[in-house]
Design brief:
Layout (H helix, E strand, L loop, with lengths): L13 E2 L5 E2 L7 H27 L45 H8 L12 H9 L1 H25 L4 H10 L11 H4 L14 H14 L4 E6 L39 E7 L3 H4 L9 H20 L4 E4 L9 H7 L4 E2 L5 E2 L8 E7 L13 H8 L1 H5 L11 E2 L6 E2 L4 H9 L9 H5 L8 H10 L6 H14 L24 H4 L6
Antiparallel strand pairs: 1-2, 3-4, 4-8, 5-8, 6-7, 9-10
Helix pairs in contact: 3-4, 5-9
Length: 504
């Protein structure tokens, strides 16, 4: 009798088409087949995801924090190019008269007696003879338009207070010098009396929106803690008697946090990635330094226009406060092994500034995104650091200050980046941090999972993937035999493309 084969049979036999059993023949049963194909599909899927993620990361649009800054001219103008512009010469060409600009005439208007042509400057009088319509409209401006505007302004009162404060501060492109005692600077230019703030929570929303419009990628607020104030001034470096014009202190002079420093507004922008590659060790931060300093200067002017004291602490002004713990208090992120604050949006690629003020605000809460736990197991930055300045242990008490965290060996770090040609600086730890990886879908998903994992399993897996697929974490990789950019810089840093010189 023929042996019937059960469908759930798990030995090495298979059933022939005629129902007869074929035993001890080379083959694989269905359960093992599904196991093998499942594992193969998983591996292939993971490899595909990694490959696609890696390739999509090559796009400059995935640079963290610069997803749109690199788009630039997105319309292809090539098919529409023509040999000559679409305007025609219909007379004798001549240069435009400077009085064609009304702004050139405005300074003279209020000194003109429109009933006495002798009071009209000769150049303007000649222009008016050639263009009588212009004289008619200029006279209308002085006699009717401006007086009517002034009347309306008086009638509507304070409707444009915030509008005026906002656009008035836009003219601030650099933090002003203190020029006096530092505590006086906070109040210099402050409107008196101050406007009464209806709701600190609503004012906080306004500050965050204005901060973004002034150029900050992220705006958060903390209740100011005086313990984060430096004890003494670092001065200018020009000697113990020199007064720092940016801060108003002499070197070594005691710093006292004024009582009106009630809140700390944090601003920040990411570095521009491609230009960082023009330096052997990615040592470039000046774009972000200047942008966040300008944003802080504008925010300071805006707050003062509302009637409240404010002082910026930024790369271009110097600091009386230590910034990382203020960022932590404000919920910008958590301190990582590098000493930088790691943000969920930008990783470590974040250049901050702080504004201390007495403007009534609602503080934000700190956040827990698992950075401390992640950095405890990761250690990529410490393994990569050419200066060996980043600790492998910790976190532990930071130089006897009463708080724990990670403290970079400042001397070793500073000596390292002072040795680098180009822009003396080093940002290798910033570049290699997994949280700073590009914002393609794979890395974004990994970050979203990592900040929610509380078991540590995902942290270990992601660190392994980083080292296996993307890692070049041997410090010698960043120390070439000849100083120079041994990575490909952006095209606009290619010296031989633009200058008739040779790279030595």
């Amino acid at each position: 009798m023929e042996e019937k084969v059960s469908k759930d049979r798990t030995d090495d036999s298979i059933e022939a088409q005629d129902g007869k059993t074929m035993k001890n023949k080379p083959g694989i049963n269905r359960r093992d087949f599904f196991k093998v194909t499942g594992v193969t599909a998983t591996v292939a899927g993971a490899a595909s995801m990694g490959g696609i993620g890696y390739l999509s990361g090559a796009s400059p649009l995935t640079n963290t924090g610069w997803e749109t800054a690199k788009i630039g001219e997105y319309f292809d103008r090539g098919p529409f190019e023509i040999d000559k512009p679409k305007y025609n010469q219909v007379g004798t060409p001549r240069r435009p008269h400077y009085m064609l600009s009304r702004l050139a005439r405005v300074p003279h208007f209020e000194r003109v007696n429109w009933n006495d042509p002798a009071t009209i400057p000769p150049d303007i009088a000649a222009w008016y003879r050639e263009n009588p319509k212009a004289m008619e409209m200029d006279r209308l401006l002085i006699e009717k338009v401006r007086p009517e505007r002034n009347r309306v302004v008086q009638e509507i009162g304070n409707r444009f207070i915030i509008h005026g404060a906002f656009f008035g501060a836009y003219g601030t492109t650099h933090p002003p010098a203190v020029n006096g005692k530092p505590e006086e600077f906070d109040w210099r230019g402050v409107r008196q009396p101050a406007f009464e703030i209806k709701d600190p929570a609503e004012m906080s929303k306004l500050i965050k929106e204005v901060g973004k419009l002034y150029g900050s990628s992220l705006v958060r607020i903390a209740k100011f803690n005086p313990i984060w104030t430096y004890d003494k001034s670092t001065g200018t470096g020009g000697g113990t008697g020199a007064v720092d014009p940016r801060r108003g202190y002499r070197f070594g002079e005691d710093i006292v946090a004024p009582e009106w420093w009630q809140y700390a507004i944090t601003l920040g922008v990411p570095n521009e990635w491609d230009s960082s590659r023009g330096n052997p060790n990615f040592g470039h931060s000046f774009d972000a330094y200047n942008e966040v300093s300008i944003a802080a200067a504008r925010m300071t002017s805006f707050i003062k226009a509302l009637g409240y004291a404010a002082r910026p602490h930024s790369p271009n002004t110097g600091y009386e406060v230590i910034v990382p713990p203020i960022l932590v208090d404000a919920g910008v992120g958590e301190q990582g092994r590098t000493g930088f604050v790691v943000t969920p949006e930008f990783g470590t690629n974040f250049r901050p500034a702080v504004i201390t003020t007495n403007l009534p605000l609602k503080p934000d809460k700190p956040i827990d995104i698992g950075v401390r736990e992640f950095c405890t197991t990761c250690k990529i930055c410490a393994e990569t650091c050419p200066a060996e300045a980043i600790p492998f242990d910790g976190p532990k008490e930071i130089r006897g200050r009463g708080f724990d965290g990670w403290q970079v060996d400042i001397e070793r770090c500073h000596n390292m980046w002072q040795s680098i040609p180009g822009t003396p600086s080093c940002r290798i730890c910033l570049i290699t941090c997994p949280f700073s990886r590009r914002s393609n879908w794979l890395h974004t998903t990994a970050r979203d999972i990592a900040v929610r994992d509380r078991t540590g399993a995902v942290h270990s897996a992601l660190t392994w993937m980083e080292k296996t697929f993307y890692g070049q974490h041997d410090p010698s990789h960043y120390l070439g035999p000849e100083w120079g950019n041994f990575r490909n810089p952006p095209w606009y840093f290619d010296v031989e493309r633009f200058l008739n010189v040779k790279k030595s």
